[in-house]
Write a structure and sequence with these properties.
Elements (H helix, E strand, L loop, with lengths): L5 E14 L7 E8 L6 E3 L3 E4 L2 E15 L10 E10 L3 E11 L9 E6 L8 E12 L14 E2 L2 E2 L2 E3 L24 H17 L2
Length: 204
């Protein structure tokens, strides 16, 4: 039986900032790890929140091996970023998580997206840039479609692409988790996300 095909990439990630925090003080940092591994992990430096925003511009590199399905499509390969707030000096508390499927970025130049925190009580937005360079394997793989955007109860799992076309803020949202895209501009994004949050809560 043939082993599944796989390709390897040199991945460069930049965790730029976290916006729309409901806090005005405190130190924050991120832990990151590649799902399914024990040694591919790290953490950023701590940064102070200013005007409800934390700026890291933290860059790191890792090597990711991604399996190729029988249809030639790359299989999921999650980079997990845990956002933490320092508590009482030597302790920390996780305020949310971001899951970045690296297969969606494979072979691309620098791509920047904004992710709503998941498993979180706040609707803060992490801005992340990713670039990936093939270093081993057959380059004839196919990139999977980006995961559909949507919300479910209090848990947000949306991915907003900076290059996405602008849509009016009147788009309907229903329980079928229709695909949505962000409006252009940071302020518009924050207002749009807040509106989604209020709509989701009103339907609980």
């Amino acid at each position: 039986m043939l082993a599944p095909a796989r390709v390897s990439f040199l991945v460069t990630v930049v965790l730029e900032d976290l916006t729309n925090l409901p806090y005005v003080s405190g130190l924050y940092f991120a832990k990151w790890k590649l799902k399914g591994t024990r040694t591919v992990k790290g953490r950023t430096q701590k940064a102070t929140v200013r005007e409800n925003t934390v700026v890291w511009n933290a860059s790191f590199q890792l090597e990711a091996t991604i399996y190729v399905g029988k249809d030639g499509v790359l299989q999921p390969c999650d980079l997990i970023l845990s956002i933490n707030q320092e508590v009482n000096g030597d302790k920390s508390e996780e305020i949310g998580v971001v899951y970045v499927n690296l297969a969606e970025y494979a072979g691309a130049a620098v791509t920047t997206r904004k992710y709503l925190l998941q498993e979180s009580r706040v609707n803060s937005i992490a801005k992340i840039s990713v670039s990936m360079q093939l270093i081993k394997g057959d380059p004839t793989y196919r990139i999977p479609e980006a995961a559909p955007d949507g919300i479910s109860g209090d848990v947000f799992g949306s991915i907003f692409s900076i290059d996405s076309p602008s849509l009016p803020g009147t788009q309907d949202i229903d329980t079928s988790l229709d695909r949505i895209r962000k409006p252009q501009g940071t302020d518009e994004t924050t207002n749009f996300v807040d509106e989604l949050f209020r709509t989701a809560k009103s339907r609980d």
